[in-house]
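Page 47, continued from p. 46.
Same chain as before, 394 aa.
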Amino acid sequence: MRLAGVVEQVVPVRLGGRSYDIVLHPGLLATVGDRLGALTSSPKIGIVTDRHVADRYLQGTLRSLCKAGYDPTPIILPPGERTKTLSTIGKILDVLARKKFERQSLLLALGGGVIGDITGFAASIYQRGIPFVQVPTTLVAQVDSSVGGKTGVDHRLGKNLIGAFYQPRAVLIDPLMLRTLPRREWIAGLAEVIKYGIIADEEFFAFLEKAMPALLKLEEGPVLHAIKRSCEIKAQVVTADERESDRRRILNYGHTIGHALESLSGYRGLIHGEAVGIGLVQEADLACHMGLCGRDIVERIRSLVQRAGLSDQISQPSFAPIWGAMQHDKKVVGGQVVGVWPVRVGEVVIRPIERQVCATWFKNSHNPRRKSSNSRQPGKNLSVEKFGHEGKSQ
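Result:
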C-alpha cells in the first residue's frame, strides 16, 4: 500500500458525552503523539502492547510521544488470547500505581483485539476510570474490536465473561501497519469484514465478492474501503445501542458458534477470526435448518468465506461440548442461547435456539450424505427482531 494521495478519513461514533472519532490514515502512527493533545492534559502515557507488536512499532510510538512532550511508560505483555486474564489486569494496575498515574493520565492500546480489550478494561477500573485510546494493529481490531467500548477478559468457562462497556477517547487507525501482519492474521480478520455485509449491507457484501482477490493482495483502495465501511457499520450499530440491549446484538453473528470453538480449543488452536469464519457459515446453515433462510444464502456466504481462505467446517466431532461451551457464552439470556441468524444477505434476525433443534442440525450437518433437498424455505410468522439495511430495525 502507498501513502501518496490518500486523504484522512474520519468516522464519528456519536454517543453524547462519550462520542469520539475513528481516524483512518496511512502513516498515522508517526503523528500519534500530536493527536493526543486534545485528549489528555497529563504527560503520563501508558503504552500497553505485546512482544510481537513492540518489536515492530514500540520505538516509533515512543519517539512520537516523546517528541510531543509526553512521558511514556511501555507495558509489554505476552501475545495471544491466553493473556486476557484478571491476572494480567492486576499487573497493568501495579505498573500504573507504581508510576503514580492519575485520573487524567492516558492508556494507549497498541495492538490487536486482545490488547485493546485488556487496556480498555484496565482503564475502566483504575481510579474508577481513566482515558484510553485505541491504536489497533490487526485487521480484526481495526474493523471491529477497537470500536464500540467492549472491554474485558476471559474466564476459564467462557470468553469475555468479565468486563465493562467503556468507550475510548479515539480510535487511530494506520492501515500501513497491516503490511507487517502475519498472513494468517490478515485472512482471519476478513471474517469480521464479511460479517458486516451479511448483517447490514448487501451492497458491501457484493463489493467483497468482487474485490476479494484484491483484498488478499492488500491493494490500497479496496483495503481502505473495507476498513472504512466496516467502521461505519459498526459505528451506526453502536450509536443506536451502546450497551447491547437490542440492535447491537446483530454484531454477534458468527460468534455464538465461533466463541464456543475458541473456548474448546483452549484459545490455542483457532484464532478469533478463523473461529468466526466457521461461525458465519455454520450459523447460516443452522438458520437454514430452522427455516429462516434458503440454501442459496448459505452457499453464497460459504463461497465468500472459502474464497477469503477461511475454513467453513467444524472439526469438533461431538455436539455436547459445543453446546456446553455455548451455554457459558455471555449472550445466554434466561438460560437460553440467543443467536443471530441471516434471512438474506444484509438482513438478520435475533432469536433463541433450543438444544434439540441445534442437536438435530448438528447431526444432519455432519452426515456426509446430507442432501440439499433437506433444506427448508424461509419461515413465516416468526416472532423475531429483524435488522438490516445499515442496521435499521425493520
